[in-house]
Specification:
Elements (H helix, E strand, L loop, with lengths): L17 E8 L2 H18 L2 E18 L9 E16 L3 H9 L6 E6 L1
Antiparallel strand pairs: 1-3, 1-4, 2-3
């Protein structure tokens, strides 16, 4: 038995089962703007979204001596945090794919898309 899906007139279903979108950024605010934009596109085109799932934040830490020759106890510590989110977009239509391709994501957000 084949599954039948009700499709609004003029919209064709894409044969892809889902699109997995992984977003990474150093800034949480920019990451949230990108996630909201993707959710808005999916909502307006009738696609369903699983997520956003917050993935573990990657924290890189390093310590540097303040002075190259003296004051061994004087050190500076730095850290870099990489925040990431995972979204699965399901029940795709051609309109959904087109709008996702035209979507403008803020600079500073890395996007990985897998079909």
């Amino acid at each position: 038995m084949s599954a039948s899906v009700l499709v609004p007139h003029g919209q064709a279903r894409v044969p892809v089962g889902k699109i997995r979108i992984k977003l990474k950024s150093y800034w949480v605010d920019l990451l949230q703007v990108a996630v909201d934009a993707i959710l808005d596109v999916a909502k307006t085109t009738g696609a369903t979204v699983s997520g956003p799932v917050p993935l573990p934040t990657r924290i890189r830490k390093w310590t540097v001596l303040s002075s190259p020759h003296v004051n061994k106890d004087a050190r500076e510590q730095f850290e870099q945090r990489t925040h990431s989110r995972l979204l699965d977009v399901k029940n795709l239509s051609a309109e959904t794919v087109d709008k996702l391709m035209q979507l403008e994501i803020p600079a500073g957000v890395n996007i990985d898309v897998k079909l």
